[in-house]
Records
---
Amino acid sequence: MITLPKATRKKMFHKGITLIEVLTAISIFAIVITAAINLFASLIKYQNIALGKAYLFNTTSFTIDYISRIIRMAQKDTNGACITSGYNFISQTPSSLKFLNADNECTEIFLENGIVKIRKLNITQNLTPANIKVDILRFALAGADQNDTIQPKVSFSLKASTLSAPAQSITVQTTVSQRMLDIVY
């Protein structure tokens, strides 16, 4: 039997780690992992919020641009086929606008069940998607009659929100004047 010197035997028995050292290392590791997971979860949450805002902004921007373009190109109804003769626009309700477009088609923009719609040639189409709810669409007219000596302009505002969580909302307002001069003829 071989006997080891006392100093060597002492070193052999002290090579391990204690239970407290293991628990401390595991605790630090758990704290670091938990912090990293929470950071990634927050990043994903805020990315979803940013994507929702961007989608809402792009959708309302398209809607506002489209409505502005067709209002700008509207023309006076001289024979009363669409609206009252001599008028450029009429607003039967605060959330609807009716006019004669550049192609001499009677056009109406209105809000129905949270969706902005356009009606041309008795065909109705949605201007906003179903996952966007339009809360408010308001039109304000100035110079709609040819006898008022004011260039026709339409101010309109739109308040929309997303239906998915987290809900985002945006309010946009613009004023558009008619391109063609409003002269009596």
Note: The first helix runs from residue 6 to 13.
---
Amino acid sequence: MKRKQRFAFVTVALALAFAFVIGYSHTHAQGQFPGYKSTIQTYNMSQSTANIILAFYRQDGSLEKTLTDIIERDRSKIYFTLPVQEGFSGSVVISSDQPVAALSNMMNSALTAGGTYVGESQGSTTVYLPLLMANSDGGFNSWFALQNPNPSSTNVTVNYSDGITTNITLAAYASHNFYQKQEPHTSNLFSAKVTSDEPVVVVAFLEDTASMAAYNGFASGAVNPAMPLVNANNNGINTDIQIQNTGDTDTSVTVSYMPSAAGSACTETQTVAAGQTVTFAGGAFESGANSTCSGGEKFIGSGHVTTNSASQPLAAVVSQRAGSSPLTQFAAYGSFDPDDATSAVRMPTINDRNAGFFTSINVMNVGSSETAVACSFTDTTYTVTGTLQPNETLTDLQANKIQDGYVGSATCRATADGAKIIAVVNQLKTGATDDQFQVYEAINQ
């Protein structure tokens, strides 16, 4: 499950896949919202000053604007206003002479819904999308943006699990948006496989009329993917895990759930057909379906695949939701391949009482032995420590713990020889009445 943006230093070019939209744009009338707006956060993971260049490309591949900037060591820079024309729709490629990471927040123009995703350090000729929707229950639809970050054109084929196929040719540096509700789908919930002559980057967006979530496409699957955060019956927040079998053989999959802050350990088993997606977690924690879980019990912890009978590559999207249709809170992240994990993770955005926003971190030991984990935060003496058994998660809520108005970043390190950890960060807003819930994957270093 290669997700290079999380696992590799970016010193040449880091591609952010989606259209950065300023204000109203007719280009996105096919989405659930009349207009979209993006922000970009760049994070220097090195101990030296980073010199960066942001190159903004229109959807046809022509250059809109370049921006040159510097970022001090172990610091972030957020671009709330992008240097493009009103109504711009396109993509950006970020180049740096130091290891950097980047996040993008995609929001509707009213700023009442949004999703966060992590920039890709390289594309792939095959990309999997485990969760897509067309006129699904509750009025959900999806769309995804595909970027060609290469200096040559590429031919792209999208094969959906319900039998629909789409072909396009993308010019150099061009991007294209695919809107599922405009396509003749025979299913409401399905997955996709994207193939391309040249490496491409894909990010998907899930929307109803009031909420939005985002996730990156997967270059490959993993036999035993891990999910650092699973919520159920937690102050109205619940989790669905959509697992896609990217292989060619049906397989029986068991997900083991381990509590970190609430609940009891349990397992869930379902068969995932080749090329298809099956939803885990939601039914297990609601009614106990296909599982040993106690329906209705509060659960805060993690999940990982412990049985994969045919050893097929799996990719999963973990969606967290609150409210009924339309949702009041919605966020999504992608599963991790434990083989790609490292002993340290970096989290570019940490908040405590920042205009009402706060974060929580969830650090999972995906190694084979016990390890101590220590987390430090920039510009504060606040720390988080713990000892984790294999597949155990350290959960910490930063609200009211660091300082009023805190905006910073965090680094967690595991100390055991050969230790491997992964992490995700949730961001919420106190008292929010609209969708201010976002989540992102930590960057392994």
Note: The chain is about 0% helix and 55% strand.
---
Amino acid sequence: MNSLSLSYAYLRHKILSTALTAATFAVGVAMIVVLLLVNAQLQNEFSNNLKGIDLVVGGKGSPMQLILSSVFHLDTPTGNISLDEAEKLSRHSLVKETIPIALGDNYQGYRIVGTTQAYPEHYNARLKAGGRYWQKKMETVLGAEVAAKSGLNPGDSFAGSHGLTTGGELHSGLPYTVVGILEQTGTAIDRLALTGRESIWHIHEQHDHDHDAEGAGHKNGAQGHHDDGHADAQGHGREITSLLITYSSPLAAVELPRQINSTTSMQAASPAFEVARLNTFMGTGTETIKYFAWFLIALAGFGIFTGLYNAMNERRYDLALMRSFGARPGKLFKLMMTESLAVAIVGLVAGVVTGHLFVESFAAWLASSKHIHITGRLFLIEEMWLVPVSLAVGALAALLPAIRVYRIDIFKTLVRR
């Protein structure tokens, strides 16, 4: 029998301990794979969405909330800002480009965003054949995900609902008409319905007018719209939710946020700074999990070592007998190494497969509940490092038992038996 056959026979004989050691190894590998996949894809999503956005200006509140709501569209806005103030800021010498964002409504949980065509153009979004951008009120262009999930096509109509999540009051009397669908961009635009700011203002002017006519307490209603991030056109002039800014000069990074925060009623937040802060928070937890995963792999390596060491003592007579029949020391050394590496390889393969399957199953929930898109059907070059690491752990675990087998004293061992 060759080394592989002998190793296989022994591992089958010790199937329970072998399976337990391989499973521990696999869990450690799977945890590392999950961390690599999730971190790489989240960083890619951050990078795609932050491209060219130097500053976000919105209502006073949490800077992180402002970034999450206006750039990633994952949180509620901090409030509204005056359109007059926003337009004045757009003309500042340190500002190269601004993109207005007006929030307030949704369609089946997807946000309807009032903006300009500069928004999709900033992310190099392209229209599918037969579509166009909005040219008048109540025309909309759908992101790729919105179109795919809703089944809407150019020429179809739909009514938005009040608020940023499902369950709000339906604006049934003011339907939107789909005039275009965007191709996949890999950014938040994929899950938005884009329209002109005039559409948002028109709907909420009409909404407020209807509430006035019903005597439903317009003052409280208007305040509610402000809190939800609506563009309110009654009493205080038109408003938007936020402004995405690109600097005209590196000097702006020092001067502009300070000016806005100290001399206006608005708040300026740096996406790069807030995302770095978010990565710091996430990084602490990620590092802890990563260390635990490496601990599990090391523990599995120790399990392999213990199993082989005990097995060597149990099989000492058999190994000595093999030597007496002509088996060279190198073959016995190879036998121990083969058994250890076999367990490590099984754990590695099982861990990689489990990690990818876990991310893929988790991705569906993440996409539906958080609108964050990751996939397990992605293989990273960083995962290749797990191969030499796993083989090294397996080899190190077998080293001492293999050396002892190599040095076994045939005569003493057979005589004792």
Note: Confidence is low (pLDDT under 50) at residues 216-235.
